[in-house]
Amino acid sequence: MAQKALEGLPESDEEWSKLAGLIGRAYKQIAIDTRDPHCIESREALAHALDAYRKPYERNPNNTWHAINLVAVFTFAKRSGVTVPTAFDTTQLAPSNQSRTDRMKHIKLNHATEL
């Protein structure tokens, strides 16, 4: 249902980012619930979660909630030894008017979530 609703919204709609984040959260939970990060379902869910969180962040870099979830999912995959098809530099995930160090501090301190 969420996918269909997202398809019907223009990216400029305020709810589009929220819905994309909800979809990312659902995929993140699927990856966690499989309890085996190497199974195909988990790898696919991780890739979908990264994609769902990445799109709103790329559209608006001030979407730090999406950025921290990108970092969390990417870190979970990396720690688990899972290669996911989406690649990005996690040091670049924050509003562009901050230094790289300040951006990561901002994300880690203000929006940290654990998988």
Give the low-pLDDT segments.
107-115
Helix fraction, binned, reads 55-70%
Mean pLDDT equals: 78
The secondary structure category is mainly alpha
Tell me the strand percentage band.
Answer: under 5%
SSE string: HHHHH
**What overall geometry do the principal axes of the alpha carbons give?**
globular
Count of strand segments: 0
Integer-rounded radius of gyration: 14 Å
Number of helices: 5
Distance between the termini: 24 Å
Largest sheet, strands/sense/barrel: none
Overview of the structural elements:
This protein has 115 residues and is mostly helical. It has five helices and no strands. Helix 3 (40-59) packs antiparallel against helix 4.
Which features would summarize this protein structure in a list?
115 residues
SSE arrangement:
Layout: H1 2-7, H2 14-33, H3 40-59, H4 64-79, H5 100-111
Question: Outline of this structure?
Answer:
The chain is mainly α.
